[in-house]
Amino acid sequence: MSSGTPTRRPPVGQVELVAIAILAVLLGGRWIVPLLDHPSLATWSTIFVAIVVQSTPFLVMGVLLSAVITALLSEKVLRKVVPRNPALGVPVAGVAGIGLPGCECAAVPIAGSLIRRGVAPAVALTFLLAAPAINPAVIVSTAVAFPGEPMFVLARFVASLLTAVAVGWWVLARAGRLPMLDRGGTLDPDASKRDRFVQTVRHDFLHASGFLVLGAILAASINTFVPREVVDTVAGQAVLGVLTLALFAFLVALCSESDAFVAASFTAFSPTAKLAFLVVGPAMDVKLASMEAGRFGTAFARQFVPVVLVTAVVSASLVGWWLL
């Protein structure tokens, strides 16, 4: 250091503030809401805490795996694993999503880490979309929620994989015209593997958790204050039913490993509408949109989010017409 004076670290820094905020989110609702004594606030708090508690373990898993990729996986290894041709790498990444049993929150930091390690954005984003939707945990939960309906399970797998690959090829076609920032932070190239691991975990968790909380706030608000009667009135209409459940999936931000049980409860809706709910949710919801905007930039999210939503709805509709 040129000045010779050591930089003093503030007694309460970003790490401490985030830790305090997370503890308040997880524990505070239990005492605060009864004091307010309002049913809507109690419902909002329950949904909000449930989303955060349900998503945080998968976010931590994704951050840890992202850090492992950053610290240990070299570009040389990636070049051997990922096809050299990105057009071929997109469907390979889609199928590789089977190997990550986790929620969609885990895929965002992993995709960012893959991009930092030199993987083509189209390939990494395909993996981001496929992993939460076609992994074994999701397949099993769908089969349990829809017993005796193997074609429905197959339809979800096919429509989700089709969505991921189609969006990946769209990103590839956009080439350099898709604005994407790398907000993964910069690491000291001379740092040890341990230091790179710790730096990545610290940065990715602090950055992603804030946007996870923001998305949970939006989802809980919509779940609480949008009347369910508005949804039920369009259940009997084919096109409106599909669009309604697709919009509902985007807004309620359920975990992909539990959303099948919610979809099964929509008895008034058609099978294709239920399929749209299950394809749209893991691909894009308000929580994911918030996290992706924070990770890759708002300009990227403004283009990426609508394309994913439209592609998911079209894929679900076509596959539902074909298989269901």
Automatic annotation (TrEMBL):
The chain crosses the membrane at residues 12-33, 45-74, 122-146, 152-173, 205-222, 234-254, 261-284, 304-323. InterPro entries: DUF318, UPF0718. Keywords: Cell membrane, Membrane, Transmembrane, Transmembrane helix. It is a multi-pass membrane protein. It comes from the Bacteria. It holds the Pfam family ArsP_1. Coiled coil: none annotated. It is found in: Cell membrane. The keyword Transmembrane helix applies. PANTHER family: UPF0718 PROTEIN YCGR. Belongs to the UPF0718 family. This is Permease. It comes from Nocardioides marinquilinus.
